Amino acid sequence: MAKRVTKKNTRSRKKPARQNPLRRVLRFLTRATLVLAVVILGLIALGAVVNPPTTPYMFAQSRALGGVSQDWVELDDVSPVMARAVVAAEDANFCTHWGFDLPAIKKAIEDGGTRGASTLSQQTVKNVYLWHGRNYTRKAMEALLTPILEAIWSKRRIVEVYLNVAEFDKGVFGVKAAARHYFGVRPDQLSGVQAARLAAILPDPKGRSASKPSAFVQKRARAILSGAATIGKDGRAACFES
Q1: 202 Cβ partners below 8 Å, 6+ apart?
Q2: Is the pLDDT of residue 242 over 80?
Q3: What are the distances in angstroms from CA 24 to CA 16, 32, 132?
Q4: In whole angstroms, what is the distance from residue 62 CA to residue 240 CA?
Q5: DSSP symbols for 21-58
Q6: What is the pLDDT of residue 38?
Q7: Residues 161, 52 contacting (CB under 8 angstroms)
Q8: Considering the entire predicted model, what is its pTM?
Q9: Per-residue pLDDT tens digits for 31-73
């Protein structure tokens, strides 16, 4: 009986095409960026209703100093003049911009960068989600996150969080700890002068004192107190006052 001869399939199997390494890297980076964006959006959305237990800078200071002083306080339990004073000192047009004060930025550029133009919104983004220090990476991230913060948070929430995480002295964070540290009072008991002095030391909290103010701090506090009264009268405090 003749054996059936089967022809072997001599066709070579096609090898899977090798993926371009560059395309693989780009795909990974795209996915990583999307995941990071979702995480950041989630954190900012969460921050609109949940008080941050700490911040990167506060955590670093706590490790370096063996602890920091900070107690959360609702904005309703803070003297209204304190909120107006910090806005007058740091960002007088807070209620009218969307995160960036363009006229202030233009003025800062014209002055050669000798004056700051950072808004309360930008400072809140930096304090809560980023790190301190002057570098382009942080500034770029701050610029990206600030409009998102403004879109999700209310102006009142921005002021409340800022007042609770701002540094007022070495290891002293938030207006409640600052009121007790400098004046021995609750934040709702702060007078106009005390509030203005606290606002006056914010740019240099470790080099200035609210309870033992230098001539410069006293002069600055008087200007802030006047500015706080002005924004209260002309409506520029309406967005954060209930």
Answers
A1: 86, 89, 90, 166, 168
A2: no
A3: 15, 12, 34
A4: 30
A5: HHHHHHHHHHHHHHHHHHHHHHHHHHHTTS--S--HHH
A6: 87
A7: yes
A8: 0.85
A9: 887 887 788 889 999 999 999 999 999 999 999 999 999 999 9
Residue located via tokens 């909120």 = 83
Number of other CB atoms surrounding residue 108 within 10 Å: 16
Residue with tokens 């002095």: 197
What is the rounded CA–CA span in Å between residue 51 and residue 53?
6
Whole-number pLDDT of residue 28? 83
Q: How confident is the model at residue 112 (pLDDT cuts 50, 70, 90)?
A: low
Determine the residue type at 133: G
Residue 159 CA, chain-centre distance (Å), reads: 10
**pLDDT tens-digit series, residues 201-222:** 999 999 999 999 999 999 999 9
Q: Which residue has the tokens 């949940």?
A: 50
Is residue 105 exposed (0-12), middle (13-18) or buried (19+ Cβ within 10 Å)? middle
